[in-house]
Amino acid sequence: MIEKGNTPGEYIDCLYQALGKPRGNAGAAVRDAVREWLTQGGDQALIATRHGVAQPSLSRLISQLREIDQLFGRAAEFHKSPD
Questions:
Q1: pTM score of the predicted model
Q2: Contact at 8 Å (CB) between 30 and 19?
C-alpha cells in the first residue's frame, strides 16, 4: 500500500514500471516530485513548486499509482503459496 512519507522507493519503481516511460522532462519531474512525497512526505504544493510542476499533476499521478497498487494487491492474492 502506498502512503505519504512511508513508501519504499523500490516499490515506487515497480509502480512506475507498470505505468511505462514518462513523456518528456515534465513527466520525469512529476515522477520525481511524487517519489519525494511518497518516500519523505511533506506538502504536495511545496514539493510541486520545488520540482517546477503543477500540484494537480502530482495528484493525478498519485491517483494512478494508487489504482496500480490496488491491482498489484489483488494480483498478489493469486500468488500465495499453497498450504
A1: 0.84
A2: no
